[in-house]
Predict the structure.
Amino acid sequence: MTSTQHRPAKTDISRTIRKHAVPFTGEYHDFDSLLEIVGDASYVLIGEASHGTHEYYKTRIDLTKRLIEEKGFNVILAEADWPDCWKVNQFVKGTGSALTANESLNEFQRFPTWLWRNADVLSFVEWLRAHNAQIPKYDNQVGFYGLDLYSLYRSAAKVLEYLKDVDPSAAQRAYHRYACLAKFGRDEQAYGYAASLGLTDDCEAKVLAELQELQANATTYMQRDGRPAADGYFFIEQNAKLVSNAQAYYRELFTGQVSTWNLRDRHMFETTLSLKEHLSKHGQKMKAVIWAHNSHLGDARATEMIDRGELNLGQLMREQFPKECKLIGFTGFSGTVTAASRWGSVAERKTVRPALCGSVESLFHTIDLPAFILNLRSKELAYQLCRPYLERAIGVIYAPETERQSHYFYTSLSEQFDAIIHFQETQAVEPLERTVRWLAGEDRVEDRID
């Protein structure tokens, strides 16, 4: 992708954007235009421009509620670890051990915990539990599932725990196969480094053998007690797949021979398809809302990712379901964000600098609305926004000192998303565990300059 294409005058573009901008205040009726864009789609991918912004979480949740209530969506797939989300899934369906929504989020202990242990998600989990409680039939209740593959050791532990209950002899075999992982002290990075040196070849074969044995015994395991047993088996089979995919991911993290980004997003895509197949076996049509970062859900082919040979979940979903898939993204000009200064460090409430000139966020800042929605399928608007602009992406780390290098990439916005929701000013999402540094926050950039 190149950034040198000719652009119309900024005033012309701003005029077109203002013409098509739908004011957004967060009120119930404000989502009507988004529901029209969704139409009859079965997959709605709703992104976020950071992993720590209240407005993105809240708006995504409110749109998801309407998709559930008015369009029959029955699955939420989140950029989170599979075993962690399963506890939430059990809670919202009235099963499992968690007694409260807060307790159902306790499995989210891996950095960065605030992604899912925050006030907005907590409120949604409580809402979803109440919603499902009004639906007597288990099969018709809305589920909550994880897409990610970071849980190498936790997923292995879940497989062992399951087999101890249903097949103790198989549990022994699984224990001996997964023992090759234990020598690295439950440290995924240590495993990846050893794998890059060729020290784990036998382990790769063993985790695959465990998955194959589990699948061979599927019929026996699922005959125990109806649908809950089938769901329980599916949960464990996905954990076994995850162990296999995760060990490959951590191996490539050090060898660099295959894009770990591609491995991760392909795993997300495969998880989505596996859940679709599982529900189909029980007579259910999956209608899924997918929550993840813009960088995972906006079509990679419309961004500079394609120049690096990278793909993402949004691209894969569009390719597989071209007429059934809608992609909705977020942008923001300035404000605050919950993020860390480096990997593994504490959550902070950090000031987000005003967006750079030449970015879509800076362009949208010329519009005299606090927040607005753009339908990027409008031909006039799509033409104006198909040219490359910078777009900001803040993950779990925010490094304003290297703002351009760390947080911007080029995109053709109207090809990346079907709709965009822009906020001029945003606030940091509130973690359930508020650290001293988060409470202290940062001064606004303007205040520090003064």
Notes: The chain has a mean pLDDT of 93. Residues 44 and 326 are 5 Å apart (CA to CA). The two ends are 39 Å apart (CA to CA). Residues 74-147 form a domain with the EreA/ChaN-like, small alpha-beta sandwich fold (CATH 3.30.1870).
